[in-house]
């Protein structure tokens, strides 16, 4: 199960006369369009390619008005990104939803069969019932930074794995082989780090965020680049609600007997009083 693409979604759910569910795979797209409230549907399978996207859009225009269509698909790694971006550029309302949401909906509908067309029909009914928020693509600069950062992390993990392996072996042939691979990986890591730095500096918004993060003691260029991705992500309503519940620090001063020394005390105070559940902490008692 994969997490959805970290793209912007509007807070207001959308409604549509013609919900369309698309089940995405590496090779193909299975689409189901609900033509009316009685559940009658139309289906179409197209390849997951640029030509397939154009064929899918032509079919949507033929069966319904593009302005009244709401397409819903699951986040499926990288396979959904191209079709989602294409439909968005063609002014089609589209929602990219977390597979956990649709999985929970499928259980509530007692759906047991599992085929591409059945999944697409389930997504269409989910779209009709829930009206998920409209998806907005991330900027190409942020997407490139995300992919390069992940590539760098993968190389570092592989380097650490090979280094641990090198510490365990004693055969000289194996040692020479591992050292040669490690040398190549270290060179690629250096190239990635330089490319990431050049990419960040070429984008003004990313460069400003990185510069701000590097003012924090102990935060270097690579850490700042990764954190820039988080700062560039638009906060969801749930995340903003969570921030509103976090405690804030406050301090007060006290004078010790004799009036000579001044002690500073720090406590935590909740913005709003949380529910008094099993693990809740009373106001003013958190240190």
Outline:
This protein has helices spanning 50-63, 81-89, 99-108, 116-130, 140-168, 172-202, 204-213, 221-232, 237-245, and strands at residues 8-13, 18-24, 28-34, 41-47, 69-74, 93-97, 133-136, 247-255, 262-270. By secondary structure, it is of the alpha/beta class. The model is unreliable at 1-8, 264-268 and 270-287 (pLDDT under 50).
Write the layout of secondary structure elements.
Blueprint: E1 8-13, E2 18-24, E3 28-34, E4 41-47, H1 50-63, E5 69-74, H2 81-89, E6 93-97, H3 99-108, H4 116-130, E7 133-136, H5 140-168, H6 172-202, H7 204-213, H8 221-232, H9 237-245, E8 247-255, E9 262-270
Parallel strand pairs: 2-5, 5-6
Antiparallel strand pairs: 1-7, 2-3, 3-4, 8-9
Helix pairs in contact: 5-6, 5-8, 7-8
At the fourth level of CATH, the homologous superfamily of the largest domain is YqgF/RNase H-like domain
Q: Indicate the proportion of strand residues.
A: 15-25%
Helix and strand pattern: EEEEHEHEHHEHHHHHEE
Mean pLDDT: 76
Query: Can you tell me the residue ranges where pLDDT is under 50 for at least 5 consecutive residues?
Result: 1-8, 264-268, 270-287
- How many strand units? 9
Distance between the termini: 38 Å
| Largest sheet entry | 5 strands, mixed
> How would you classify the helix and strand content by structural class?
alpha/beta
Number of DSSP helical runs:
9
Q: What topology, given as strand order, has the largest sheet?
A: 4-3-2-5-6
Total number of domains: 3
CATH class of the largest domain: Alpha Beta
CATH topology (level 3) name of the largest domain = Nucleotidyltransferase, domain 5
Helicity range of the residues? Answer: 40-55%
- Give the overall shape, derived from the CA principal axes: elongated
Q: Based on the coordinates given, report the CATH architecture of the largest domain.
A: 2-Layer Sandwich
Rg, alpha carbons:
26 Å
């Amino acid at each position: 199960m994969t997490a959805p693409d970290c793209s912007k979604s509007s807070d207001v759910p959308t409604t549509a006369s013609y919900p369309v569910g698309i089940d995405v795979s590496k090779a193909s797209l299975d689409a189901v369009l609900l033509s009316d409230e009685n559940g009658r549907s139309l289906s179409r399978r197209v390849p997951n390619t640029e030509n397939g996207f154009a064929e899918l859009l032509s079919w949507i225009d033929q069966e319904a008005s593009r302005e009244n269509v709401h397409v819903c698909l699951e986040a499926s790694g990288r396979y959904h990104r191209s079709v989602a971006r294409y439909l968005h550029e063609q002014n089609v309302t589209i929602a990219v939803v977390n597979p956990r949401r649709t999985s929970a909906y499928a259980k509530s509908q007692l759906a047991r069969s599992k085929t591409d067309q059945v999944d697409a029909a389930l997504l269409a009914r989910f779209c009709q019932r829930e009206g998920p928020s409209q998806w907005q693509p991330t900027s190409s600069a942020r997407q490139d930074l995300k992919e390069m950062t992940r590539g760098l992390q993968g190389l570092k993990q592989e380097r650490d794995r090979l280094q641990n392996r090198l510490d365990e072996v004693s055969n000289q042939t194996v040692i020479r082989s591992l050292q040669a691979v490690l040398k190549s990986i270290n060179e690629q890591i250096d190239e990635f780090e330089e490319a990431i730095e050049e990419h960040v500096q070429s984008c003004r918004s990313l460069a400003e965020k990185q510069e701000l993060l590097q003012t924090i003691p102990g935060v270097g260029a690579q850490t700042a680049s990764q954190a820039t991705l988080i700062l560039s992500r638009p906060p969801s309503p749930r995340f903003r609600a969570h921030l509103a519940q976090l405690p804030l620090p406050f301090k007060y001063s006290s004078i010790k007997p004799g009036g000579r020394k001044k002690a500073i005390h720090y406590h935590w105070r909740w913005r709003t009083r949380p529910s008094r559940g099993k693990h809740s902490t009373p106001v003013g008692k958190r240190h």
